[in-house]
Input
Amino acid sequence: MEKRTIMVTGGAGFIGSSVVRHFVKKYPDYKIINVDKLTYAGNLENLKDIEHFPNYSFIKADICDFVDMCRIIEENEVDGIIHLAAESHVDRSIKDPFTFARTNVMGTLSLLQAARLYWEKSPSKYSGKLFYHVSTDEVYGALELSCPNGTGISNECGGGPYGRDFFTEKTAYMPHSPYSASKASGDHFVRSFHDTYGFPIIISNCSNNYGPYQFPEKLIPLCINNIRNKKPLPIYGTGENVRDWLYVEDHSKAIDLLFHKGRVGQTYNIGGFNEWKNIDIVKLLIKITDKLLGRQENEDIGLITFVKDRAGHDLRYAIDSSKLRDELGWQPSLQFEEGLEKTVKWYIENRKWLENVTSGDYMNYYQDMYKLSLS
Ligand code: NAD
Ligand code: TYD
Output
């Protein structure tokens, strides 16, 4: 097998740790270097099971530090970058947009420039090199909820259950939150490097991910943790907002496929044709969690608490990932109910992980956010 040195940024986070684990296990001849600043969202516990693998190493660094990025890329002779490092939580971006612009825009630019300068020095220049940028469907904005009762056609051609439209690779960017605006800006810089310098890139825009090791500020792990602890389940607005969910390992497999076989310079959407209203997910989580904890059916339904809506809350996301399916044969391996049950089991069995990440400052942060949303 070909030898490669791949730098994964944000590898200590939720999706990054899944990508690192996937590549480290599947490609023993690759050197996988995890570069992460270890913000509140980065946790090396997420990689405990693979940290001893000889093809894995970790470097603590900030992607915004351009000099450091140049040094790391050059010293390690990096020929591939999978860029996931980011500030990723919409609610935080509403409170602190600067941090999002810094990491998601300037950090991405710093990495692009560092890789470009190093790769351009090589006699083979860009040959065999790739900058793979992991982005989100949120850059496209929001879709209409034209079938609020779910009466739309639920298939891959005729529309989604909650509306006719999907985000395709041709949908114009229309971000609404500081998070999505910062990711959109990062995406534009990545594409501009391709168009200006011929720099080799692939961008993928994925829908909402769920699975093990997700920081419990996001809807699914937050609800699982709160059901377990019999705490309120805060639902923004009416709970009618729709998201399209994908199991995190299916995302990692798509990244692997695109990294090796995707067309350079292209954008690919990744999603599971799996739209759910927030309120329905929370009800399903209560059902699964109560069952797994040996509680009575729907014992915890009363925990549902409708709170003030998120500012600028996008109504509906739905991804058309047929380009990836048609070009490379990718499709999600798990049905949502199956993936959700697997996920709930993981959080119940990994109570210690949850307790570690929800202690201290994070709890204070969460309590502040919760009080704010009630006010
Ligand atoms: P996460 O918040 O769990 O992890 C982000 C990681 O980046 C953390 O390990 C953090 O320490 C690291 N990081 C943050 N700032 C850094 C910096 N300046 N320098 C180096 N490292 C830094 O995020 P996630 O949910 O795993 O998302 C990963 C990527 O996937 C992001 O780019 C996000 O926009 C994208 N994405 C996420 C989802 C989702 O549902 N979570 C969906 C589509 C795309
Ligand atoms: P989230 O997990 O934050 O992902 P994103 O904002 O990137 O889609 O939220 C998923 C959906 O759940 C979103 O519509 C907001 C909603 N939500 C709640 O209703 N309550 C909550 O406590 C959180 C965190 C999210």
